[in-house]
């Protein structure tokens, strides 16, 4: 940790988040000269007292150090799009669920001509990410009563109990989660990847360093312009790797003049490379949270679980298939049981449509790096209405489960969406009126071959048309895997680091 900004580095990683830390650590471990520039604070190594309690506490989601993004006036009320602004990035905030998705997700990337991204090629990287992130599998006997009730009930709707969720060949199943939690601590990517490399003389990590834009000379990235402690600096680099996440990597590109003419010209940003796909193809899995009034027995049992010392909000998960999916799964069920809220008679489970058709965008409104971007997910906007239909089917399965003999004695009346949306028509209307996200935005700097006009980076994460510039985070996923995206983000970091190392060794 340092407060001094170097004037140059061989590799500058922009964003010390989930994927960025993987890239930085791998390059530094190989002896290369690496500088990480993180817009938020660097709290130092694991165990440092500077780490805020909410970012460490794995029983619930982190809240402090948020970028403060939301849907603005897109919907009748703002939908928050949380992202952590601190070393560790959104791995500081998340629910610690580690899922991989299905083989088809990654094979479909490879089928787009993206060499190196098939499930078989990524599988060892998932294993390595799992090891580094200290992922462990909950046992069924560790589940709190609310989590266990859904796990036990799953077979009533034909969803088998399975040992874990991360078999890439498996379709439906309900299982205790795999989580990156050790001794109650959320193991973020800074702890898992940066810390072992922090002592290396060739790795520098600078917090409170907001990268404004990439400097480009004759089609080659030469460094970045960065705001540090209120002053503007330039840092020169051989290679710049953007890892600002799905909302911010495209905004850095846009401020650097890389993006669609139509967007840059009105903002007086000189166009360096016309790439129409920058900021487009934004998608996340739409989400519906359902709540029931728990029985007195459930209230007592959950209070007892909390008193016993460990009652995290999330612990189990189901994979299910809607009528739109015939080979794998396209729904998640996520029991959610926040004992800290004090609302002891209300328990929830969410469903999410994992393969959404709708696409939105991220756009800059000004060249000021502190200005919030416009983020419009255009949730549930697909003209066929498939996204809403998948969520409706998910909700119907959950209602069937709630009424099953295993669950019925434990849950009372449905509170949300509630009796006024019991008909399918009313449920559709409810979901359209209450769009929500699953915290997994991807796609705004999508990988694609050079002939794909919407592609932003190639299969080696190189920005099309610009030398010495890469993107390594969830933004490069051309299509979302049917997974929560923390481990896929780690895998993106591992994959891009592998490409960079191969090239460095052959120089
Ligand atoms: C509340 C919440 C709960 C979640 N729960 C889960 C879960 O349980 N399981 C799961 O798998 N996934 C979960 N996710 C999603 C997962 O955490 C993210 O998909 C993943 O962490 C994103 O990784 P990333 O590297 O793309 O971006 P991030 O981890 O967000 O990293 C981006 C980094 O870049 C920095 N940065 C951005 N702009 C700049 C700039 N201009 N200059 C310098 N630095 C910059 C940011 O501050 C940040 O540190 C959750 C996410 C949230 C927000």
Described by the principal axes of the CA atoms, the overall outline is: globular
Bound molecules: flavin-adenine dinucleotide
Annotated CATH homologous superfamily of the largest domain: FAD/NAD(P)-binding domain
CATH topology of the largest domain: FAD/NAD(P)-binding domain
Mean pLDDT: 96
Unreliable stretches (pLDDT < 50, length at least 5) are none
Number of E-type strands: 21
Main pleated sheet:
7 strands, mixed
Portion in beta strands: 15-25%
Question: How is the topology of this model organized?
Answer:
Blueprint: E1 8-14, H1 18-29, E2 34-37, H2 53-56, H3 103-111, H4 119-132, E3 136-137, H5 145-153, E4 173-176, E5 178-179, E6 181-182, E7 185-186, H6 189-194, E8 203-206, E9 209-217, E10 220-228, E11 231-242, H7 249-255, E12 258-259, H8 261-264, E13 273-274, E14 287-294, H9 296-307, E15 316-320, E16 331-336, E17 346-353, E18 361-363, E19 374-376, H10 386-402, E20 411-416, H11 424-433, E21 469-471, H12 486-505
Parallel strand pairs: 1-2, 1-11, 2-8, 11-21, 12-13
Antiparallel strand pairs: 3-5, 4-15, 6-7, 9-10, 10-11, 14-17, 14-20, 15-16, 16-17, 18-19
Helix pairs in contact: 1-12, 4-12, 10-11
Bound molecules: flavin-adenine dinucleotide.
Flavin-adenine dinucleotide is lined by residues 14-20, 37-40, 61, 82-83, 85, 89-91, 93-98, 210-211, 243-246, 248, 252, 369, 439-440, 473-474, 484-487, 489.
